[in-house]
Amino acid sequence: MNAALPDPAALATRIKAWGRTLGFGAVGIAGIELERAEAHLLDWLARGFHGDMDYMARHGRKRSRPAELVPGTVRVISVRMDYLPPAGADPETVLNVPTAAYISRYALGRDYHKVMRRRLQRLADRIEAEIGAFGYRAFVDSAPVLEKPLAQQAGLGWIGKHTNLLAREAGSWFFLGELYTDLPLPVDGPVAAHCGSCSACIDICPTQAIVAPYRLDARRCISYLTIELKGSIPEPLRPLIGNRIYGCDDCQLVCPWNRFAHPAEAPDFAPRHGLDAVRLVELFAWSEADFLARTEGSAIRRIGHVRWLRNIAVALGNAPGSTAIVAALQARTDHASALVREHVHWALERHAKHAATGCT
Question: Quick one: which residues bind [4Fe-4S] cluster 1 (predicted)?
Answer without folding.
Answer: 195, 198, 201, 255
